[in-house]
Amino acid sequence: MAADAAAPSRRVAVVGGGWAGLAAAVQACQAGHAVTLYESAGDLGGRARTVHSEGVALDNGQHILIGAYKQTLALIKTVGADPDKLLHRQPLELRYPDGRGLRLSKGPAGLAFGLAVMRCKGWSASDRWALLREAARWTRMGFSCDPKLTVAELCQTLPAPVRKLLIDPMCVAALNTPAEEASATVFLRVLLDALFSGRGSADLLLPRAPLGSLLPEPAAEWLLQTGAELKLGTRVQALHKQDQGWRIGEQHFAAVILACPPGEAARLAEPFDAHWAQRAVALRYEPIVTVWLHSPKGKLPTPMAALFEGPGRPAQFAFDHGALGGTPGHFAFVISGAAASVAKGLKITANEVQQQAISSFPEGTWYTRPQVLKVMAEKRATFRCTPGLDRPPMWIAGHSKLAADGPPLLAAGDYVAGPYPATLEGAVRAGQAAAHALGPAKA
Q1: Which CATH code fits 3-48+212-283+390-437?
Q2: To which H or E segment does residue 186 belong?
Q3: How far apart (Å, rounded) are the C-alpha atoms in residues 317 and 212?
């Protein structure tokens, strides 16, 4: 049944077409609701999308999945895409161009981690045993800790080489927040899911194809085939309560899920819950900058390489898209926690990354001098994942136990209260949770 013909009790609006909004829309359709999805941009994907620049398809950042992202992988399958073909799977690896670093082998992640630590190049025997003792302590703690702790405080007894080669890069990659400021509670949750969620949970899943083909494009096709209505290039100006439901423009809905960025969600929610809106706008953010380089016939030693960060060397990771099955000669250099780089200026940052790329890898890596292809800055990429962060809840209005009576108004996004940092899995789970809270459609 098309959205316009659906009974009011079955009609749901999803505002925002990023990964949270797509997850919410798919889940709501599966529950029998008639869905209308609003997206202010001309395409879907939000902060994990494909951008076409001068005839070249580039992602707006190098998004990494891990094997523990079970809900995201299941959603990709649901909409008809094949993650086995679209994602390059390899054991977790944080290897540097000089050969130092950690690489897990196949098998149970916890055992593989222990073996990888004992074989890690760049650490002394005392470094290795210190990390294993600390990991054992985290296990006894149930991977929980004082919520006031930062990652740096949690790991303060670890030797400097362990923090430099493993803890700091893992923290900034997973939480996009420096270890000195990042939440130890969330960091431990990421480690728990990666190392103790079953075989392959710690595997890195690197996109072989543009992000658009991973979820946004197949999800759009699936939603249209299911009868959903997609309104691209349409910004929702306001919500209006009406007749135990909601009105957007001239359309009426039984429930609304705000899957747009927190600032936009706060604008729409403020008339109905000012306190929720205040919590949403109070979040602080960290940018991510991606510098795309082009060097025909260039090839990195591994598809993904960790880099030593420092003055004039801002990037923490490099990705060889030719090795991943993408465009040969295209390389993505990623700067997480990139506030300093944004403040310095993107042109200066791009020049620094270009020099970092040349100096970081062995002779012969670059057949020709790498040139800057594109610089992309996602200035509000993720919320700053700090200790005790007061993230807004999923329910805004309409739940008898948590909010005022009335039609449901919910929030879905990686910033909504939950155990995960701002990741694709966090976004997908938030979207699915919001749609699930509505229950099955009424006949």
Answers
A1: 3.50.50.60
A2: helix 184-195
A3: 22
- The H or E element containing residue 136 is helix 125-140
pTM: 0.93
- For residue 352, give the H/E element and its range: helix 346-360
| C-beta atoms surrounding 318 within 10 Å | 25
SS3 at position 220: helix
The three-state secondary structure class of 286 is strand
Q: Give the distance, in angstroms, between the CA of residue 152 and the centroid of all CA atoms in the same chain.
A: 22
74-83 as b/e, with b when 16 or more CB fall inside 10 Å? ebbeebebeb
User: Which has the closest alpha carbon to 419: 41, 144, 160, 103?
Assistant: 144
Q: What is the DSSP string of 145-188?
A: --TT-BHHHHTTTS-HHHIIIIIHHHHHHHHSS-TTTSBHHHHH
Q: How far is CA 352 from CA 97, 186, 357, 372, in A?
A: 18, 31, 9, 11
What is the mean pLDDT of each successive set of 10 residues along the chain, which is 443 residues long? 50 98 98 97 92 80 90 98 95 91 84 91 95 95 96 97 94 94 96 84 92 96 97 97 92 96 97 96 96 95 94 96 91 95 97 97 92 94 95 83 71 94 95 95 75
